[in-house]
Amino acid sequence: MRLLDKYILKAFVGPFLFGVFAFTSIFIGTGTLFRIAQYITEYGAPLLLVMKAFVLALPSIVILTFPMSVLLASLMTFSRLSSTSEIVVMRAGGLSFLRLAMPVYIIALIISIGAVAFNEFVVPRTNNMYQTIVREQIMKNASPQTQNHIVLKTMNGNDLGTLMYAKSYNAETKQLSMITVQQFGEGGKLQQVENADTAIWNGQYWVMQNGIIYDISAGDGVERTMKFKEQSLPIKSAPKDIQQDQRKPEELTIKELRHQIKAYKAAYTNANKLEMEMYQRFTIPLASFVFALVGAPLGLQKQRSSSSIGFGISILIIFIYYGVMTFAGALGKGGALPTVFAALIPDTLGVIAGLYLNWRVSK
């Protein structure tokens, strides 16, 4: 790494860390602290338990602040270099703007890739731990009597064994309604599908009623069907396990989201919300690289001599980006746009804007 690259990266790191701290504080102050105070005042939760929940809530917040912080850091880094005329000297030495910005773009790409991994391996686990504490220790198992869109599964090693979807579950009557069960063989190949109106817990296992079995294990388009009045459900989860196992989309890994989507589609249920969540696990972290493409050339403008102006411009760009993301996400969840296209819209527009700005300052 050349000395100049180290110098630019050193100028980038300080504003980036400041941005992570500043934007995280904003998120905490506008939402998280209110919920924490509510747990203490309304539920009488002990302070130590509340502090544990607070720490577990941080990863889901920090992952959102990475792109914002990269934008602020890249903008302020080149703003300072421009205001002190250092950038003029560097370019007079024969270095193009793209070469000067390359270390920032590389570190932003590394941050994006790291954020994708963080969003997959850390955030879902901490979100689940947070929700478990809130549900089981703070709210004292205040589970709803009726739950919708129940998904349960069994695994054969790393392969999916059984995948069950139920439209609703009534905890009072211990009854599942509108059930679809998919059974898979070796290599995750679908072998059998079972549909039933209801399944009732008899104290030991679930009994499906008034259903039909589609056996497609023979392959080559051969399908055998059989109707039944009663059939045991190939899922061993007890009623209390069903209530505890149901997790929100933000508590699921990408692999688990794919299983949920497969279960929803097998039951002809709208899975757009889950698909948007899955695609945004990639597009939101990758916004760090997109924001670097936008922020670096913007920092070269002559009027960018004040850090407060740079911070204000960052807020404006962030507002536009997340506004577009929210609007496109609503279109995707509503079915007006394909979910993958809706998820890609904000980053695609950001890349186009960034490439244009880079081209303009490179002339």
Structural features, described:
It is built from ten helices and six strands; from the N terminus they run H-H-H-H-H-E-E-E-E-E-E-H-H-H-H-H. The longest helix is centred in the N-terminal third of the chain and has 41 residues. Helix 1 runs parallel beside helix 4 and helix 4 packs antiparallel against helix 8. It is of the alpha+beta class.
C-alpha Rg, in Å? 26 Å
Distance between the termini: 26 Å
Mean pLDDT across residues: 90
Strand/helix succession: HHHHHEEEEEEHHHHH
Sheet with the most strands, sense and barrel status = 6 strands, antiparallel
Uncertain ranges: none
Broad structural category: alpha+beta
Helical amount among residues, as a percent range?
A: 55-70%
Count of helix runs: 10
Into which percentage range does the β-strand content fall? 15-25%
Biggest sheet strand order reads 1-2-3-4-5-6
Task: Give the beta-strand count.
Answer: 6
